[in-house]
Amino acid sequence: MTMQPASTEIASRTAAIIHEMKGLEGPLLPILHGIQEEFGHVPQDSLPIIAEALNISNAEVHGVVTFYHDYRSHPAGRHVLKVCQAEACQSMGSDAVAAKLKQLLGIGFHETTRDGSVTLEPVYCLGLCACAPSAMLDGEVIGRLDDEKLDEIVAEVRS
Amino acid sequence: MTPRIYIPGDSGALALGAEKVAKAIASELAERGIEAKIVRNGSRGAYFLEPMVEVATENGRVAYGPVKPSDVKSLFDSGFLTGGHHKRWLGSPDKIPFLAKQTRLTFARCGINDPLSLDAYKSLGGLKGLQNAVAMAPIEVVNQVTASGLRGRGGAGFPTGIKWKTVLDATADKKYIVCNADEGDSATFADRMIMEGDPFVLIEGMAIAGVATGATKGFVYIRSEYPHAVAVMNKAVEVARKAGVLGLNVLGSPNAFDMEIRVGAGAYVCGEETSLLNSLEGKRGVVRAKPPLPAIQGLFGKPTVINNVISLASVPIIMDKGAAFYKDFGMGRSRGTIPIQIAGNVKFGGLFEAAFGMTLGEIVDDIGGGTATGRPVKAVQVGGPLGAYFPRALFNTPFDYEAFAAKDGLIGHAGITVFDDTADMLKQARFAMEFCAIESCGKCTPCRIGSTRGVETIDKIASGVEPEKNIALVTDLCNTMKFGSLCALGGFTPYPVMSALNHFREDFKPAPVAEAAE
Q1: How far is residue B420's CA from residue A88's CA, in Å, rounded to a whole number?
Q2: B385 shares its domain with B455
Q3: Please, what's the b/e burial string for B111-139 (b: 16 or more CB within 10 A of its CB; e: otherwise)?
Q4: Are residues B290 and B414 in the same domain?
Q5: What's the domain range around B75?
Q6: In a domain, B111, yes or no
Q7: What is the pLDDT of residue A54?
Q8: pLDDT at B513 over 70
Q9: Side by side, which strands form the sheet with B53-57?
Q10: What is the three-class DSSP state of B140?
Q11: A140 contacts on B by Cβ (under 8 Å)
Q12: Considering chain B, what percentage of its residues have pLDDT values greater than 70?
């Protein structure tokens, strides 16, 4: 089981982030980014605190959090591997890349391995379209994926 | 003179191992006791040569590429610091055919120097456009941009000067410049490249837009998939602020302009301008109905210029060299240059800036060199996930907004994805619908529900269930989506679907069932 911070702790860390960002014009997305960076996901307990601070309804905050693909409701694995599945990568065999990664890791898209080592996600374009197929491992970009590079990635996330 | 070695820090180069090359070079320098300065420049855009390492010699720059970490020892042995010969030797970067054939106006500086050196930016003509702009009346700046013929490079092709004029004429206590850097279309990376390789040109373009319209605040909305671009832009804004390019007195003038970098959250639809504005305001990225135009009631209800990165980055050269200079390039109503991004299954992939008017065939076959796999080109998709698939038969289409529209296609953000003959166009049509279903903001029913019904109907065609009837159904559905959606996501998804259907009908025939032996 992943240790979850107690809700009072979530409240105080959330409040600190809100305090830092509240002066921005249109602060909700920067706050949510800050919270996700802090906790690795956007905890449910944070939402009413944000709503209160920004003087908007809980429903509005919930609506925004769930609209955007980036915000997680649960923590991801220790590594996050995003594999591009958009057209330029498709033309260079991104289907096969995804299939191989799923097989090597034993998980599908939007899933985390049982040992919590890695979360696999599709992404629609990393802007590496002249170096397809591409992926991003914990923010590091990797282009022209081949079997050798896939094996390296899998070894890295398993280590 | 201390030798200078240029190793790109552009994410395309990093994806191909530039960081490992930089480390190998640094440790080789230390081991050999050589003093040299390593500069992390942007990319010049010839990705088939990345990581491309350059050295400054007495006779100018000499390039080597694509460099692997295992090449580094032998590069030193060959005397590459003075331009020595090596199997990776490419000679002067300006003479590499892929780069030499280009007309670089917007990307003139991209990839040459350290992107965060304002001195380097100025040494190559940077800030001249802004200097000219602050010395002019706002309407004169707007007129110059209008006269250049610059049209929105995000895809819609709306004249930039006219948009600016509307904002200039609007009265409000506050106006905004918003830069759309939510470059989500597959095959496009021009915005990313310029933000990582020459961020000051975008900052300068936005400051000019501010001066021209009376806007005092700018936002750059960058997609979260571009962490490197976000980092460079944040640093560049700091540098520009310290140097007085941004602030209460832009370049010492009475004009105030400052800006902020904002990061998206993985919603493709936020590349649509009104969704982007909602997202900046901290709302769901749902499309707004127009009117009111963002130029009248945009961000926080204030008059707002919202332009694509490349539109704004093209403004400094127009203000520097004049409208006539820029307008002189191009054809018809498509004036100036366009950074074409050649991507996917292609031999020489990268960014190719050229005047409008080259044919698709020249771009794909002559510049791109055909497919990377060496197989015949079957189709190219121009304009990202909402762009049409063109067969070879349409390769004589010139790169021009109107010419593409006449062939039921669009230029979009000028990305081209090349597919070889193994591509299954039914699968591509299905993906277009699937992508629309994933990314629809949900506001318009034809987009929200039609896309899912589209996937199901194409699946029926694939499995041979009443193919003719279902093809007619998809066609009808596309028509509904095209005319019943507020924005380009639902409205343009029919382009890839219908072009696949019209030009590659053979892929929509049910797979022949193997006949049983008699």
Answers
A1: 12
A2: no
A3: bbbebbebebbeeeebbebbebbbebebe
A4: no
A5: 4-99
A6: no
A7: 97
A8: no
A9: B37-39, B4-6, B53-57, B60-64, B89-91
A10: helix
A11: 14
A12: 98
First to last CA, chain B: 83
Q: Are B490 and B444 in contact (CB under 8 A)?
A: yes
DSSP per position, B448-486: HTHHHHHHHHHHHHHTTSSHHHHHHHHHHHHHHHHHH-S
pLDDT of residue B509: 87
Per CB-CB distance under 8 Å, the chain A contacts of B351 are: 130
Domain boundary at B36, B65, B99, which?
B99
Tell me which residue in A63, A128, A143 faces B284 most closely, judged by beta carbons: A63
Kindly state the tokens that stand for B92. Answer: 């002067």
Asked whether residue B345 is domain-assigned, the answer is: yes
Closest-CA distance of chain A to residue B244, Å: 22
Shared-domain flag, residues B263 and B393: no
CATH number of the domain within which B67 lies:
3.40.30.10
A26 touches chain B (CB under 8 A): yes
Contact A111, A126 (CB under 8 A): no
| Residue B516, domain member (yes or no) | no
Question: In terms of domains, do B139 and B79 share one?
Answer: no
pLDDT band at B1 (very low <50, low <70, confident <90, very high): confident
**Dihedral, CA of residue A57, residue A58, residue A61 and residue A62, to nearest 10:** -140
pLDDT tens figures, B35-77: 999 999 999 999 999 999 999 999 999 999 999 999 999 999 9
Cα–Cα dist B259/B150, whole Å: 23
Is there a single domain that holds both residue B340 and residue B403?
yes
> Is ipTM > 0.90 here?
yes
* DSSP character at residue B188: -
Q: What is the pLDDT of residue B95?
A: 97
Q: Are residues B193 and B315 in the same domain?
A: yes
Residue B250 and residue B123 share a domain: yes
State pLDDT tens for residues B127-148.
999 999 999 999 999 999 999 9
N- to C-terminal Cα distance for chain A?
A: 20
Structurally, how many domains does chain B consist of? 4
Mutate to test the interface with A, among B11, B346, B443 (most CBs of A within 10 A): B11
Q: Domain check: are B93 and B230 in the same one? A: no
Cα gap A81→A74, rounded to integer Å = 16
A132 CB neighbours in chain B (<8 A) are: 343-345
Q: Do residues B55 and B3 touch, judged by C-beta distance below 8 A?
A: yes
Residue B14's pLDDT is what? Answer: 98
User: How much is the CA Rg of chain B, to the nearest whole Å?
Assistant: 24
CB of B410 closer than 8 Å to CB of B493: no
Closest B-chain CA to A130: B343
Note whether A68 contacts B267, CB cutoff 8 Å: yes
Of B99, B132, B167, the residue that ends a domain is B99
Chain A residues close to B265, C-beta within 8 Å: 29, 32-33, 68-71
> Residues B88, B77: contact at Cβ < 8 Å?
no
Handedness of CA B355, B361, B362, B365 (dihedral sign): positive
B517 falls within a domain: no
Quote the CA–CA distance of B499 and B383 in Å, as a whole number. 13
Nearest-angstrom CA–CA distance, B284 and B136: 39
Backbone phi, psi, residue B152, to 5°: -55, 120
